[in-house]
Design brief:
Elements lengths: L1 H8 L9 H11 L3 E3 L6 E3 L1 H20 L3 E2 L5 E3 H5 L2 H7 L4 E6 L2 E9 L4 H11 L8 E10 L13 E11 L2 H21 L5 E5 L11 E8 L5 E11 L1 H5 L4 E2 L5 E2 L2 E8 L1 H10 L16 E5 L7 H14 L4 E3 L6 H10 L4 E5 L1 H6 L1 E6 L5 E5 L3 H26 L1 E3 L3 H9 L3 E6 L3 H11 L2 E6 L22 E6 L3
Parallel strand pairs: 3-7, 15-16, 15-17, 20-21
Antiparallel strand pairs: 1-2, 4-6, 5-6, 7-8, 8-14, 9-10, 9-22, 10-11, 11-14, 12-13, 17-18, 18-19, 21-23, 22-23
Bound molecules: zinc ion.
């Protein structure tokens, strides 16, 4: 079995030596995705799609529990819509795919394949909203979007990806602001409790905010290479799109007013986050809450009487408790199967052989810690359930420990550069000038990830220009290289 292990590990690059290659090897070899024939597109294979379905189910439940309903809007948007909001068109025009012809015939107006849906939804809302009685509007859409990116990587940046986008409308600005903050909190809870990824939440700078938003909030997750993955954003759009699309409502006081909007989204990027926050030298490590298979049962010496029957019995008892259990009865050696399922990140495996049946117990192995335990068949479903809960908890704690150990406070640009180059996030004081933000990006390749809600004074000078900052003059911000 040891030789099997070594052989298998050879198939994926060393996570400590070549993280980008490790990522590529893992996503392809575990059959999460494959490359589509058109450059920059990805095919999400059943194993990857099952993770997405689990993400969708967990998040959809939370989106509905906070008062939203799902709807679906067309993917084709008249080009003129994109032009209506100045910042929005500037932000998205370079990467939109356009439909110009139907067959041989040129269209009188080009169509945009949606890069995001603020414009088409804004257009529809202008028809649906007339009175204060029509507010708030709380709609979410699960959809695909297209953004033609120059450099692409599966899940992280692809020409087409899947996501959800919430679009709400409110009578007063405070409500829109509260909504943007509330959904960020929903995302954070989801990231931590379902994906087992601790996130840093805060506000984006003017430079990094969404094209067309007044304020963008973000959750940033640290990957194992110390880079940040922007994992979800919420936007207070203020009245920008309401004015561009002439959404107006007659308020209680008889005055015609523009309402306030939000939008918010997370995407299949989250699968990239799972891979890069939890993986190890053997491949994927999936948190039980989203793992397509939570327990894999591997028969040992399956040709011997009673082994397959026992495996089936075990699977049934685990399934009866709501555990996603499967048997791998393919014609391969147990060692080969151990390696395969470890690479695929299945949270736990159970080995069932003739000796186990005799002793009335079996071997249980955790993917997160590689710990081996022996469980009696009696009451095994409950024991496994508790282990899965512990794996989920342990993965979050491990990620939190890793993250906290890789956040450094810096006082100078040189320190900042050294820290991000060696795989850390930097917490530092910033004078708030766009120039300093740009210099930092240019000199260190790190961008301003967010300004955390909990502002704490971590220095007395701007990390870039050195300007002294007294009292609440400075802004505490996180800087990191990012995906
Ligand atoms: Zn400065």
């Amino acid at each position: 079995m040891a030789s099997g292990n070594q052989q298998f590990v050879k198939e994926i690059a060393d996570i400590n030596k070549n993280f980008p290659q490790w990522y590529t090897d893992v996503v392809i070899k575990t059959q999460l995705v494959d490359y589509g024939p058109v450059k920059g597109t990805m095919v999400i294979r059943p194993y990857g799609y099952a993770i997405w379905e689990n993400i969708q189910r967990e998040l959809d439940m939370r989106i509905k529990a906070t008062g939203h309903e799902n709807a679906y809007f067309p993917m084709f948007i008249p080009y003129s819509y994109l032009l209506k909001e100045a910042e929005h068109v500037e932000g998205f025009a370079p990467e939109v795919a356009l439909v110009t012809h139907i067959g041989d015939e040129e269209l009188p107006e080009k169509l945009v394949v949606r890069p995001t849906s603020e414009t088409i939804i804004g257009n529809m809302y202008s028809k649906w909203i007339q009175s204060w009685r029509d507010l708030p509007v709380m709609i979410n859409q699960w959809a695909n979007v297209v953004r033609w990116e120059k450099t692409t990587r599966p899940f992280l940046r692809t020409s087409e990806f899947l996501w959800q986008e919430g679009h709400t409308v409110h009578a007063i600005e405070e409500e829109a602001e509260d909504e943007a903050l509330k959904m960020l909190e929903v995302y954070k809870e989801f990231a931590e409790n379902v994906l087992a990824i601790p996130v840093i939440v805060g506000r984006k700078s003017e430079k990094e905010k969404f094209a067309g938003a007044k304020t963008t909030y973000t959750m940033e997750a640290m990957m194992l290479d110390g880079k940040s993955l922007q994992s979800g954003t919420t936007h207070n759009l203020a009245q920008n799109f309401a004015k561009a699309f002439d959404i107006q409502f007659l308020d209680k006081d008889g005055v015609l007013k523009y309402p306030f909007q939000t939008s918010w989204g997370v995407s299949t990027r989250l699968i990239g986050a799972l891979i890069m926050a939890h993986g190890d030298e053997r491949g994927l490590v999936l948190p039980p809450a989203v793992a397509p298979k939570q327990v894999i049962i591997i028969p040992i010496a399956a040709f011997k009487g009673g082994v397959n029957e026992k495996a089936k019995e075990l699977k049934a008892s685990l399934r009866a408790r709501g555990i996603r259990a499967e048997i791998d009865d393919r014609d391969q050696s147990p060692g080969w199967k151990f390696n395969e399922w470890e690479m695929k990140g299945v949270p736990a495996r159970i080995e069932v052989g003739p000796r186990d049946i005799e002793s009335g117990s079996c071997v249980f192995v955790r993917r997160d810690t590689h710990e081996k335990k022996t469980f009696d068949f009696d009451g095994i479903a409950q024991a496994v359930e508790e282990e899965l809960e512990d794996i989920q908890r342990n993965m979050l704690e491990k990620s939190r420990g890793f993250r906290d150990a890789h956040i450094l406070v810096c006082d100078t640009l040189a320190e900042l550069k050294k820290a991000v180059d060696s795989g850390n996030f930097v917490k530092a004081m910033w004078c708030g000038s766009t120039e300093c933000e740009a210099v930092i990006k240019q000199e260190t390749a790190a961008s301003l990830r967010c300004m955390p809600f909990e502002q704490e004074v971590v220095g007395t000078r701007c990390v870039c220009c050195g300007k002294p900052l007294k009292g609440d003059e400075g802004i505490t911000a996180y800087f990191a290289k990012a995906y």
